[in-house]
Specification:
heterodimer; A: about 80 residues; mainly alpha; about 0% strand; B: about 725 residues; alpha+beta; Rossmann fold; 6-stranded antiparallel β-barrel; 23 strands; globular
């Protein structure tokens, strides 16, 4: 299976090793954002994408998750 | 007397016409002499000057190799090496296979391209050795110096390693060199020699085998040769660079808030900080509202004094760190500058791990010498007035050399700006270590605004102590507070609610990476700076704030997946410790080599078994990396394409074209200078903002080119050319 972001070999959760780490970081930090600002998952992703401090891989995964959410109309959290 | 000995007479006579009194040296080969080998030509000159009884040795030349003839109680010939003249090579010349575990020591000219001069050098040393009856190794007293001296004594001088004596010195001043020659060590330091041999051999085994395995795997897939390398220390360094890079690239910032207030005390405004950070916006807003229009009240005032001890003397690592902090010099640059200052006898031997200065270096004499310099006159006078000079020392020690210290000698030539800066830094540090601690007062006031506690912190230097000697290299921010009393009311002028985000970890810079390597004990003080340079040269990392490239990541991930031992910090450190034990006589070179082969064998086997997948991963990344190198920037015409350095298949000429050309969307192109190497700089033209390229042509200086024909700078230059009058603006 290919990584959903970079098409390298996927290792877990449909991501390669490096993007899986970024995915993990996005998931873990949502609770902090939710508590701090009361944002929804979608708002969170959009904030993370536009923040200049977000790491390159985290941004790529966030962009992918945002698109995936729109496409499938998936509601996470 | 051999034929070569006679040639020496001729050479002496020939040189004597211009350089020396013929009567002194014409009969030289009749009488045997002492042959002194040094590491570098500059050191040879200084040693010859120190050893000659009139301090005027004759400079001679043999087939273009300089050497010096000095007269002391007997005749002395001082000949320099050019650093390492011998190196480790494989037993066979085949380059296309691995593993390779058999090797030998050979002259460098037989193993490296562009080292032809070494042949003449070695030949000349061999010829001079034939006229000598005693031998002295005067190379730098460390592992590398010992192996340089040993290999010359053994191979070039014909097995004289057990007859040779050893000079041990830490500065190239005449007094120390004369003392060192008078008190020669009876033997070479074979512990250091064995440790040096082991280090070179182990490094060769790792470098050649892993690099070949990676290169061959990539070539077998892509059909193109692209050098991919890693070494014993490079692997672990990539490992912690990779870990840092991954944590930056996976970083997700989280919000928090800081609350500050501007309070007025005695007519002046001070900024006070809330005692903790706030995690939610709601809480921050509540706090903000509660503090508005409130008066502050000083709850508690406390002050404390503490002593700030002088810094330790410089070892190489701390000098490199400090030079980076203050002047932004890379560790390699600082090392090179320090080496030049050492060869000019201005500072002591810089490749030292010691933070100790023994009294034998004679502190008072050095300070007296420094007292002759106008800029240090008053400071040294103050230290010289002290009844007892006692330096502050660090824990690190080096049995071979003391910490870095100035000799106090006047420079014999005009120093470059960077040399002056490093010398001044060493001198001021040396003075600072004899001084008293600085006394600092910290004052803290807790101010209650509404029901919330804010803090005001002040800092005042009561006694400058050593800081006075280390100026301008020490910077302390003084925050002077007014006298405050408990229960005192203060006016709150403004309340500030600052929304902030957590920051990603800092990237390593050359100095912090060096510190990390030192901390985990991998590499040596002399090689650490070079290892970083190799990573840059191989394009595994880029930029001053070290950023790992895709290629660096792929090499690291490949090694982690198939041979984790190669990038293991623990294994590398263990090997390092064993090599250090050789020097102390607790371990043998053979055992260490065997350990290295035992680590390598399974790793290489794994790389061989997985050669295809390793090759696929690496070749696709190298192709991508090559393409990235060619990308100059985004296309200013179509805005969506990327400008790439291309070569026309038809004419063979290089030019810059838009990537959208291949899709038939944009035909923007720019001419480039031919017969030159053009590469992207990643920088923009200061005048027009277009991307620039770097042009390197044979026999010309490298230059940066803005390829925008409409660039205002170009127009201005044209106008100047036409009018013949320079214009301003």
């Amino acid at each position: 299976m290919e990584c959903k972001v970079c098409r390298k070999q996927a290792e877990r959760l449909g991501y390669c090793k490096l993007h899986a780490e970024a995915y993990q970081s996005i998931i873990e930090n949502y609770s902090v954002w939710k508590k701090a600002l009361g944002v929804s998952w979608k708002e969170y992703l959009s904030e993370v994408i536009k923040n200049s401090l977000t790491g390159e891989w985290a941004k790529e995964v966030a962009e992918h998750l945002a698109k995936e959410g729109d496409k499938n109309n998936v509601k996470i959290y | 007397m051999s034929c070569q000995g006679k040639t020496t007479i001729c050479e002496y006579r020939a040189a004597g016409k211009t350089q020396i009194a013929t009567s002194r040296y014409v009969e030289l080969p009749m009488q045997k002499y002492t042959l002194v080998i040094t590491e570098k030509p500059d050191a040879a000159r200084r040693i010859a000057v120190a050893l000659d009884r009139n301090h005027k040795p004759a400079k001679m030349s043999l087939s273009g190799v300089p050497y010096y003839a000095a007269q002391r109680d007997r005749r002395i010939v001082v000949v320099p090496a050019l650093g390492h003249l011998y190196t480790v090579v494989g037993e066979t010349n085949k380059r296309d296979f691995y593993p390779v575990f058999s090797f030998k020591w050979m002259p460098r000219f037989m193993a490296e391209r562009g080292a032809a001069r070494i042949r003449i050098w070695l030949d000349s040393i061999s010829r001079l050795a034939k006229g000598a009856d005693s031998f002295v190794d005067a190379c730098d007293y460390d592992v590398e110096g010992s192996i340089i001296g040993y290999s010359i004594m053994r191979y070039a001088c014909g097995n004289k390693e057990h007859l040779s004596k050893r000079m041990k010195y830490s500065t190239l001043t005449e007094e120390e060199l004369e003392k060192s020659y008078a008190e020669l060590l009876p033997n070479l330091d074979f512990g250091q020699v064995e440790a040096g041999k082991a280090r070179h051999e182990v490094d060769w085994l790792f470098g050649i085998n892993i690099s070949r395995a990676l290169t061959i795997a990539a070539r077998n897939v892509s059909g193109r040769y692209e050098m991919l390398s890693t070494g014993r220390v490079q692997g672990p360094v990539l490992m912690f660079l990779g870990a840092r890079e991954a944590s930056i690239k996976c970083f997700v910032p989280t919000p928090y808030w800081e609350m500050r207030a501007r309070v007025e005390i005695n007519g002046r405004t001070y900024e006070v900080e809330h005692e903790r950070t706030i995690e939610t916006k709601k809480e921050a807003e509540t706090l903000f509202n509660e503090c508005l229009k409130k008066t502050g009240c000083v709850e508690k005032v406390a002050s404390a004094e503490y002593l700030q001890s002088p810094p330790f003397p410089f070892d190489l690592g701390t000098l490199q760190n400090e030079a980076y902090r203050l002047f932004r010099y890379t560790p390699k640059r600082t090392m090179d500058i320090a080496q030049r200052l050492y060869l000019d006898a201005l500072i002591s031997y810089p490749r030292t791990s010691s933070q100790k200065l023994p009294p034998t270096i004679n502190y008072r004499a050095i300070l007296l010498n420094l007292n002759r310099f106008q800029s240090y006159k008053s400071l040294t006078a103050e230290l010289l007035a002290l009844p007892d000079l006692k330096p502050r020392e660090g824990a690190k020690d080096d049995p071979a050399h003391p910490a870095i210290y100035p000799t106090g000698r006047m420079p014999e030539r005009t120093l470059t700006m960077s040399e002056e800066k490093v010398l001044d830094l060493v001198i001021r540090r040396f003075m600072a270590i004899f001084s008293l601690p600085a006394v600092i007062q910290i004052m803290k006031a807790r101010i209650k605004v509404g029901s919330h506690m804010f803090q005001l912190t002040g800092r005042k230097t009561l006694t400058a102590g050593w800081q006075k000697f280390y100026k301008p290299y020490v910077h302390t921010e003084e925050v002077l507070l007014p006298p405050l009393h408990e229960e005192e009311k203060v006016k709150v002028r403004k309340v500030l609610m600052l929304a902030k985000f957590t920051q990603p970890p800092n990237r390593y810079n050359p100095a912090s990476l060096l510190r990390k390597m030192e901390e985990v004990n991998i590499g040596t003080k002399s090689t650490r700076a070079e290892i970083l340079q190799i990573l840059y040269d191989r394009k595994y990392v880029k930029n001053e704030r070290i950023e790992m490239t895709d290629l660096g990541f792929e090499v690291l991930e490949t090694l982690k997946d198939y041979c984790p031992a190669i990038v293991s910090v623990k294994l590398t450190r263990e090997l390092e410790e064993k090599m250090e034990s050789i020097q102390a006589g607790r371990e043998t070179r053979e055992n260490v080599l065997e350990d290295a082969v035992n680590v390598l064998k399974p790793a290489l086997e794994q790389l061989r078994i997985n050669e295809k997948s390793v090759g696929e991963r690496l070749s696709s990344t190298t192709v991508k990396a090559k393409l990235e190198e060619k990308i100059v920037g985004s296309c200013p015409t179509c805005k969506t394409g990327r400008l790439i350095i291309l070569r026309s298949k038809k004419t063979g000429k290089q030019f810059i074209g838009c990537s959208n050309y291949f899709k038939g969307r944009c035909n923007t192109s720019f001419a480039l200078p031919q017969k030159s190497h053009v590469s992207a700089t990643g920088k923009k033209c200061k005048c027009c903002g277009w991307p620039t390229v770097q042009v390197r042509a044979r026999g010309k200086h490298m230059w940066e080119l803005c390829f925008n024909a409409e660039c205002p700078a170009k127009k201005r230059r044209k106008q100047v050319g036409m009018q013949g009058v320079p214009q301003t603006g």
